[in-house]
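Ticket reopened. Same input as before:
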Amino acid sequence: MEPEKKWKSRATLVDLLDRVFDKGVVIHADLIISVAGVPLIGVNLRAALAGMETMLKYGIMQDMDAKTRMWEAQHRKNKEVTLLEEEEIILKIFGSYYYSKGIYRAWKSGYFYLTNFRLLLYQQDIAEVVFQTPLEKMIAIKIRREKSFTGKDKDIIYLALEGERVARLDVLQTQEFIEKLRDLEGKIGVALDGELPAEELDETTNNFVMDGERICCRGKIWHLMPKSGIMAEIWKPGYLYLTNKRLYWWYEFEGKILFQVPIDKITGAIQERRNLSAVLTDKKVLDVIYYSNNGSKIVASFSGKEIEEWQKALNKMIAKEGNLIEDKEIETCPQCGKKAPVKELLEKGCPRCGWVSPRLKKTPVVST
Amino acid sequence: MAEGRYVYCVAESNDRLDLGRVGIEGSQVYTIPYKDLCAVVHNCPAQPYESKDKKVVESWVIAHEETIETAWKRLGTVLPLGFDTIIKTDEENPEEVVRAWLKEDYQSLKEKLNKIKGKVEYGVQVSWDTKIIARELIEKNFELKRLHEEIKSKPRGMAYMYRQKLEKLIRGRLEKEAERCFKEFYERIKGCTNEVKVEKLKKEDEPRQMLMNLSCLADKDDKTLGDELEKINNRESFFVRFTGPWPPYSFV
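Engineering reply: fixed in the latest deploy. New output:
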């Protein structure tokens, strides 16, 4: 076989560029013209070859990245909640508010500001008011001792607002918070002596939640009941719950959980359009794929309004569960292109060519 | 504007030679000698060549390479430098700065020259066709073959899952096979060269995939590397790209 001569083709030109930009005898940097020791054109062409992501990953532009992040963090830290004219802060206290919208349910934490006008929860990190109510709209308050997901008992404040709404709050110093609220009573037309409206929270939910389990999402959804005995498969309405431990579907009519699977058995959730019956055609269906106890793969189908949200929430939860698998993620060595686990590359260097991450070089070695 | 000397390469000659207007953008190229060494240079302002136009950069790079080849032919062994290496010189005695560098690095430059004397560099890139290889893997492996057959009889949803599983299995096998081929070819190529450097792999158009990218230092006029590569190239679904001879950029 004869070698191809030089830059006759595009491919051989690339071969030439590789050599001429990265190689050759190196002269002491003081003697030559360069920008930060690297010829300018070399930098431009190289930047076009390696993606920004990869460069960041291997710490090449780490300094710049760190600076940008620092600036952003500082910038945000300085942001205080914007107050209205003549508004004064009476109490600022750390706490959280139970946020529920659509299928999402979560405690959102930040600083509660009690002012002479309103009560609000402000999340500094994202500069967002998560919850707020004018003082006059508060009609009743009640404290309940509840088991939190950490397993400890907590005082949860149920604050009834006009319009049948009940807010659940959790603050760091409950007593102080209540006292300050009571102080306001009468002064600015605040009255907290009303009764809590009929229970908003469905008690049934709590009956099924196990110790240390926390509901992340909940929503109305149809489920395709599999064939059983002489019964053909059939769609039935109910509620789907996603917790940090499992996914379960509660059949309202019988008041029973008819489907449940631990998160770590779920391998994925995909979306499809299917006909549910002769009448219900082309509906969005969420197929949850999971391993049964005997190791075979099973598909459970759900259909409803919030399929996209469910898919997102489920895949997020699976990803969290699958941390261990991510450790085995494969990357290519930036020097020789050898495929190796990311962890090994970043912590030990390349097994083939001996490349070591610049991050590793930075860390001082402590001799033992 | 301060002056500089663009350096192409270092060669073994104590003559002051004029190589003509062969440099970047037709610059006059000549040698600055110190003892039995000389630097091949042209005069330029003390600022790097830079351009956003790829075509312009490429023409500079080709001129850089061609100038080194000219010197290579006329002066024998050369130590090539990277593109855009410009030595800052002072106003009164610009050549002295270049000579001072040759003097200071004399020992190491001589050693490098001796190492590459009579040798040339080749680029060797081996790729394979993943599609054909994957097909062969399925044929050869009972488990994969069974899975492949099963997919055809499955409903859409299940077929999707099976395909995912099959793809994952094949990816794993390909990795292993690639590793095995790398080791085999590397040993074979190493056996007929002086030195081998492993370079970064390049992305190729699907379904081709690069297995190895090497720079090899071999004796001038030695044909054994070409013969060995021919054998690899003749294997079905393997492709060898063999470029050169280059000045030994990777071994200096």
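The first strand of chain A starts at residue 89 and ends at 101. Chain A is about 25% helix and 35% strand. Please confirm and we'll close it.
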